[in-house]
């Protein structure tokens, strides 16, 4: 049994498709299928339900998948431990971030990679639920998400900043250059918001309900970059976390003011409760947690107090 065969098996379980799994592993589909068959021979059990197309894992495959994922994770830690014996830290760090934090990710990863240039980053946009699941299955090393989520019980959490919300607009004169604005008035504006299944949108909708108003939603989208485009080019408004304003620091096409009363949520890093942590993960956490993001983001909008 080879580590490569386990990698193929785990990738197939993730992709649910032989061709996509082969592409992800950088091999031909026949080579991937042959390697998985050899793994089945070595283990003495069928792992994959065979047919004209992928139709899932067998019960034995489902039972052994978590063990295969753990073996691969331990192999990655072994490589990192070996690398840490030298003065050079190397390897790939897999980071899953909720969509609204994607503009913030470079502020965390760039300083770390400047210090450790032989490391690489795999950054995936994920929902909070997906981050939990992929941390559990060793598909992610670090999650970047809301840290008050009940799903995170049993994980280690590292607070980075408290997210505040602001009204994003093209021309501040349209609301009278004020210092802040209330949720009732925001609800009357034509808004572009993220789609209803996203955690950010659910929090915003809950705040509007608490204020006793129904927002006037003109456009819904699943990317923050589309939110920016709609505000800048279509003259719509949006409700965004103030951390997102770091995406527009050098631009004058959009403006933001705080919304009161404040909607505040803590954002941070999340990892499995392993002890010790893999060297690459431990070093990255220490470097990222030392960055003062709160002061940077708070400076992007006028203080409410």
Present the secondary structure layout.
Elements: H1 3-15, H2 18-25, H3 29-43, H4 59-84, E1 91-97, H5 105-115, E2 119-125, H6 128-136, E3 142-146, E4 156-163, E5 165-169, E6 181-182, H7 183-187, E7 191-194, H8 199-210, E8 217-221, H9 224-234, E9 238-241, E10 255-260, E11 265-271, H10 279-289, H11 293-298
Parallel strand pairs: 1-2, 1-3, 6-10, 7-8
Antiparallel strand pairs: 3-11, 4-11, 5-9, 5-10
Helix pairs in contact: 1-2, 1-3, 1-4, 2-3
Number of strands: 11
Strands of the widest sheet, in order across it, are 2-1-3-11-4
- CATH names the topology of the largest domain as D-Maltodextrin-Binding Protein, domain 2
User: Which term fits the overall shape?
Assistant: elongated
Query: What's the CATH architecture of the largest domain?
Result: 3-Layer(aba) Sandwich
Poorly predicted regions are: none
In whole angstroms, the N-to-C terminal distance is: 63 Å
The CATH superfamily of the largest domain appears as Periplasmic binding protein-like II
Radius of gyration: 23 Å
Broad structural category = alpha/beta
Indicate the percent of residues in helices.
40-55%
- Report strand %: 15-25%
Q: Tell me the name of the CATH class of the largest domain.
A: Alpha Beta
Overall number of structural domains: 3
What is the count of DSSP helices, taking H or I runs of 4+ residues?
11
Describe the largest sheet.
5 strands, mixed
Average pLDDT score? 88
